[in-house]
């Protein structure tokens, strides 16, 4: 599942992939493809195949 998010560092909009097979609750780190700074991504399945996604700076 693709999700568009805004980088909390540089403000650019980027598309990330949430793996529906990864479980109902997922937390992982990923680097921004624009500025290369690390994010913490938290995804929670709200309905089958539908995830609510939150993103935070790793230094928060």
From TrEMBL:
Organism from which the protein derives: Anaeromyxobacter paludicola
UniProt xrefs under InterPro entries: UCP037225, zinc_ribbon_bacterial
A Pfam family annotated for this UniProt entry: Zn_ribbon_21
Name of protein: CPXCG motif-containing cysteine-rich protein
């Amino acid at each position: 599942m693709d999700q568009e998010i805004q980088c909390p560092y540089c403000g650019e909009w980027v598309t990330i992939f949430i793996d529906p097979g990864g479980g109902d609750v997922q937390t992982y780190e990923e680097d921004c493809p624009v500025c290369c700074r690390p994010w913490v991504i938290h995804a929670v399945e709200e309905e089958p195949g539908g995830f609510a996604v939150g993103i935070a700076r790793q230094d928060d």
